[in-house]
Amino acid sequence: MNKKSIVIYTFTLSFIVLIILIKIDLTTSFDSSIYNLVTMNMNDNLTNIYKSITFLGSGVFITISCLLSLVLSFILKKRNIGLIITSCVTINSLFSEFLKIIIARPRPEILQITVENSYSFPSSHTVASVSLCGILLYLVLKREINKKIKLFLSIILVLLPILIGISRIYLGVHNLSDVLGGGILAITLLLIEIKIIEKKIYNNLLIK
């Protein structure tokens, strides 16, 4: 078994363990503590900032981003890049919604600044943002570009999903465990997808 397979199995096991912990109600105290920490300095300005950040993980923004990737990749004659980005985000998001229905975890019973009617686990915003930023990060790291630009883009692509996850906790629509679950799920699926990409597509079609 190679290192990539071990990492995939580790993330998969972590996700399963997290579901079990949620089902036997062992995350409640920790979730509450993190919510209190995140909302400790709640005010109108901070709320507006987090509302703007959370929009970056919304279905509308993610869909627009995927469509732009398709258009740009078509213009730049790198059509496979846009297809890969869109496919990864779409597959991961749909699988996340399927799991939400199966696990059926209610939303947190706290102040919800933004009202959500669907189930809570895993966080769809987190899955979508980690999937989009994750596959973009992979493509950036594969490209031969200026090291400073690569570092800057990498930092942005890592920080953005983290901030979106924090915004979901601040707005009261997710627990930390929901956000962690979304992140772990998205990373697991991305690792599988990247393994397929490198085996089937990358050497012949992706960036050449």
UniProtKB/TrEMBL annotation:
Q: Which domain of life is it from?
A: Archaea
Q: Which Pfam families match?
A: PAP2
Q: Which residues cross the membrane?
A: 7-29, 49-76, 83-103, 123-141, 153-173, 179-197
Domain Phosphatidic acid phosphatase type 2/haloperoxidase: from-to ranges: 80-194
Q: Which UniProt keywords apply?
A: Membrane, Transmembrane, Transmembrane helix
| InterPro entries xrefs | PAP2/HPO (IPR000326), PAP2/HPO_sf (IPR036938)
Any coiled-coil regions, as ranges = none
Show the CDD domains listed in the entry: PAP2_like_2 (cd03392)
Q: Which PANTHER family match?
A: AT30094P, SPHINGOSINE-1-PHOSPHATE PHOSPHOHYDROLASE
Name the chain's protein. Undecaprenyl-diphosphatase
| Species whose genome carries this gene | Methanobrevibacter olleyae
